[in-house]
Amino acid sequence: MFSEFKRRFSNRRQYIDLLWVFVKTSFKMRYQNSILGVFWVMAKPLLTFLLMFQIWSGFGKNSQVGIFPIYLLTGVVFFTYFQELVIYGQMSLLEKAHIILKVSFPRQIAVVSSLLNALINLFINLIVVFFIIFINRLALKPEGMLYFLFLVITLFIFCSGLAFFTSILTIRFRDLKNIFDLGLFLLFWSTPVFYTLENNPLFDQSAIDFINSIPFTHLLNQVRASFGLYYEIDPNFALTFFIVSVTLLVIGWRSFSVRVKKIAEYF
Amino acid sequence: MNNKEVAIKIRNLSKTFMIRENTKYTVKELVVSFFNQGRTKSYKVLDNINLDIYKGEFFGIIGGNGSGKSTLLKLIAGIYKPDDGSHIDYAGKLVPFLELGVGFNPDLTGRENIYLNGTILGMTLKFINTKIKDIIEFAEIGQYIDMPVKNYSSGMMVRLAFSIAIQSKADIYLLDEILSVGDARFQQKSIKIIYEFKRQGKTIVFVNHSMDAIRRLCDRVMLLKKGEYVVGKPDKIIKMYTN
């Protein structure tokens, strides 16, 4: 009669609906009262792409990475996806503090709903990517697209695990927001989001070695591989990335479930 | 009452808040004050409460500001974690109304806020679809339902929030000062609804500063004072409180 287990399962439908309403509302509110509305989702990666293309296309043409606009755009869009997953996940509990203090519901819903907004933004941005692909007549392979989907989902899993830690820590230490902003800024410049490493006279071997030592570089290479650009699909990377992501999710979920019980007192 | 079915069972319930003087929100503050962590003070708001609230009972909680009334409701609702060794169990579905219009977004329309607030209160979208007419009608919002709620008067806002809240299907309701919303006519209408809940055998835990409402509505009342408590008939407890 007092079984928490039974209660949880009978509430499954209402939790799915709550997740949906949270996702819908925060997506809508992000662009409410703005003239360009949902275009702002695309504006940041698109303008970054246009600017970087203007500056870097000279080097891009000389490299062997394939069609440079697609190389550049896939990098910018995928980095934006990662950036939003990290930031939205980190701020998810703080943004819903006013609800968390008044109603009891699985707090994981607040985290996952924020992350789903990043996923929606990615799909909107992919419209531009596929438009550029269409213009450049790049032939996509079905297995490549499946691999891209795998990378998108696995990164979502990875960032969910991360968010289960950071969302709670950020309530206690507000500086983490700035630290993560700085970290993402540095990651943007230190990984080949917009530049190429191949045949690029700007980089010596030590710089290339450093950039290649950053795991996100390999993730970007794999994203480009899925679009058939220069790199090869690396099954070892895919497997390692998947195992690390699932492990992080499991540890993050368990840690979150224990620590979240006291968060209402931390706000 | 002892033969009645227990709706909420509370055993050894204590709640201590650890309040650090000079709370550190930034890493800089944390590093700078590493050797001077400041004192952490503990405030025991509730101390060893043992209580059975019965099914169908209208149970009132009174006490001065800071006596722990809202904390007790939040503990029952599962928002706060009680101290180790405390036990709270309840039978059936529990819906807390600790504040009307939780999650209301001023930029969303009344209709959109019904879906937002309704799901936060544990309703499914399917259920809200079947109740939306009743909600709008009870709130007396009419044609303004598709207008952003930032344009509502405060009375309209709380009427809408109350109308959503009462649609929640639950066995136990926790009400924190929510019967004093709207004008006198709407308050009467609201109290009628609460009486209807009582008639249906719902359990209601009710925090209110109006002794008149407590006397009229409650079967038993708990007085909280400095972590201690006493439970009894409304007249007796109100007399203790007011004296």
TrEMBL record, chain A:
<feature type="transmembrane region" description="Helical">
    <location>
        <begin position="34"/>
        <end position="56"/>
    </location>
</feature>
<protein>
    <recommendedName>
        <fullName>ABC-2 type transporter transmembrane domain-containing protein</fullName>
    </recommendedName>
</protein>
<comment type="similarity">
    <text>Belongs to the ABC-2 integral membrane protein family.</text>
</comment>
<feature type="transmembrane region" description="Helical">
    <location>
        <begin position="147"/>
        <end position="171"/>
    </location>
</feature>
<dbReference type="GO" id="GO:0005886">
    <property type="term" value="C:plasma membrane"/>
</dbReference>
<dbReference type="InterPro" id="IPR013525">
    <property type="entry name" value="ABC2_TM"/>
</dbReference>
<feature type="transmembrane region" description="Helical">
    <location>
        <begin position="237"/>
        <end position="256"/>
    </location>
</feature>
<keyword id="KW-0813">Transport</keyword>
<dbReference type="Pfam" id="PF01061">
    <property type="entry name" value="ABC2_membrane"/>
</dbReference>
<feature type="transmembrane region" description="Helical">
    <location>
        <begin position="178"/>
        <end position="197"/>
    </location>
</feature>
<keyword id="KW-1133">Transmembrane helix</keyword>
<dbReference type="GO" id="GO:0015920">
    <property type="term" value="P:lipopolysaccharide transport"/>
</dbReference>
<feature type="domain" description="ABC-2 type transporter transmembrane">
    <location>
        <begin position="19"/>
        <end position="226"/>
    </location>
</feature>
<keyword id="KW-1003">Cell membrane</keyword>
<dbReference type="GO" id="GO:0140359">
    <property type="term" value="F:ABC-type transporter activity"/>
</dbReference>
<feature type="transmembrane region" description="Helical">
    <location>
        <begin position="68"/>
        <end position="88"/>
    </location>
</feature>
<keyword id="KW-0472">Membrane</keyword>
<keyword id="KW-0812">Transmembrane</keyword>
<feature type="transmembrane region" description="Helical">
    <location>
        <begin position="109"/>
        <end position="135"/>
    </location>
</feature>
UniProtKB/TrEMBL annotation, chain B:
<dbReference type="InterPro" id="IPR003593">
    <property type="entry name" value="AAA+_ATPase"/>
</dbReference>
<dbReference type="GO" id="GO:0016020">
    <property type="term" value="C:membrane"/>
</dbReference>
<dbReference type="GO" id="GO:0005524">
    <property type="term" value="F:ATP binding"/>
</dbReference>
<dbReference type="Pfam" id="PF00005">
    <property type="entry name" value="ABC_tran"/>
</dbReference>
<keyword id="KW-0813">Transport</keyword>
<dbReference type="InterPro" id="IPR015860">
    <property type="entry name" value="ABC_transpr_TagH-like"/>
</dbReference>
<feature type="domain" description="ABC transporter">
    <location>
        <begin position="8"/>
        <end position="243"/>
    </location>
</feature>
<keyword id="KW-0547">Nucleotide-binding</keyword>
<protein>
    <submittedName>
        <fullName>ABC transporter ATP-binding protein</fullName>
    </submittedName>
</protein>
<keyword id="KW-0067">ATP-binding</keyword>
<dbReference type="InterPro" id="IPR050683">
    <property type="entry name" value="Bact_Polysacc_Export_ATP-bd"/>
</dbReference>
<comment type="similarity">
    <text>Belongs to the ABC transporter superfamily.</text>
</comment>
<dbReference type="InterPro" id="IPR027417">
    <property type="entry name" value="P-loop_NTPase"/>
</dbReference>
<dbReference type="GO" id="GO:0140359">
    <property type="term" value="F:ABC-type transporter activity"/>
</dbReference>
<dbReference type="InterPro" id="IPR017871">
    <property type="entry name" value="ABC_transporter-like_CS"/>
</dbReference>
<dbReference type="InterPro" id="IPR003439">
    <property type="entry name" value="ABC_transporter-like_ATP-bd"/>
</dbReference>
<dbReference type="GO" id="GO:0016887">
    <property type="term" value="F:ATP hydrolysis activity"/>
</dbReference>
